[in-house]
Design goal:
This protein is α/β, with parallel strands linked by helices. Helix content is 42%, strand content 15%. The longest helix is centred in the first third of the chain and has 18 residues. It is globular and about 55 Å long.
Length: 290
């Protein structure tokens, strides 16, 4: 991310969530009625224009999917999968949710399940400043929303979160969505080390990552160019075994590791045959005390 500039990938993800909240029923998988409020006026107008009629929305769905080589189809599916992991933790009694690289995530404003939960939104200060402006006047459904500024390449969670009121003695659920591929491996390992220190036994982590060798050579090159154009760089790819080893070393047990191909079998997606396995989601739980 360019210095002094917010994450543009957060715009892209929020726009897709907004789009898929207004498409015809057969395309609507994850509903996020708050997402459009978080977009810049121009991007919000574009989303509304693309969903003004069912036929236009269907065409936009196909065009964006083709342009992104199927990557866009995975965003609503990924949203549902992560929501499930959060709800499972909250049902088990977890009352702290940490969004690492929160971007324009609207979960604190759209999920009634978070009524008794404190949500810690951890992100770059430039992105947080934009989000504060866009959420002005919105009433969160979470009990409390706390912003904690961080640069994952320079700062340490172990210092940032406790200063924001996070209680490391209590279980927590962590969401690290759409971030790791833009970080160096050293930054990823440092963050996982912080989770080892901060996540109490029984805590859960939902983390997405870019699969090593995703797509073909041309697809990888296109992804690298696209990321660079919006001020990001694809830095790290991992295999499921590599990520699992990193989690196990920090006393996490992997409960599931799936891609959009797996999600599409549980929540049938329109044109599911066009879904591609680029990003994966690992859900892991910190071992409870014996």
């Amino acid at each position: 991310m360019r210095a002094g500039s917010r994450s543009r990938t957060s715009d892209w993800v929020a726009a897709l969530r907004a789009l898929y909240s207004e498409v015809p029923d057969e395309l609507r998988l994850a509903r996020d009625d708050v997402a459009v409020s978080l977009l810049s006026p121009g991007l919000a107008a574009l989303v509304r224009g693309l969903t003004v009629r069912p036929g236009v929305a269907r065409a936009a769905h196909r065009l964006i999917g083709a342009t992104t080589l199927g990557l866009s189809y995975g965003v609503p599916l990924r949203t549902i999968a992560i929501d499930e992991a959060i709800v499972r933790s909250v049902t088990e009694g977890t009352r702290q949710l940490v969004l690492l690289g929160a971007g324009l995530d609207a979960r604190a404003f759209r999920m009634p399940e978070l009524a008794g939960v404190t949500v810690f939104e951890v992100d770059h200060p430039s992105t947080q400043a934009f989000k504060r402006e866009r959420t002005r006047g919105l009433v969160p459904l979470a009990e409390r929303v706390v912003s904690a500024a961080i640069d994952f390449e320079r700062d340490r969670l172990g210092e940032v979160l406790p200063n924001a009121g996070f209680d490391r003695a209590k279980p927590s659920v962590w969401v690290w969505e759409g971030v790791t591929m833009y970080l160096s491996q050293d930054a990823i390992d440092a963050t996982l080390d912080s989770l080892e220190a901060l996540a109490a036994p029984g805590s859960r982590l939902a983390v997405t990552y870019l699969k090593r060798g995703f797509g073909g050579v041309a697809t990888r090159r296109l992804g690298e160019v696209g990321a660079t154009l919006i001020g990001e760089h694809l830095r790290t790819q991992q295999s499921p075994d590599e990520l699992s080893a990193r989690l196990v070393a920090r006393d996490f047990v992997v409960e599931a590791d799936e891609s959009a191909l797996d999600w599409a079998t549980r929540w049938p997606a329109d044109d599911a045959r066009r879904v591609r396995e680029y990003e994966r989601l690992a859900v892991a739980r910190r071992r409870p005390l014996a």
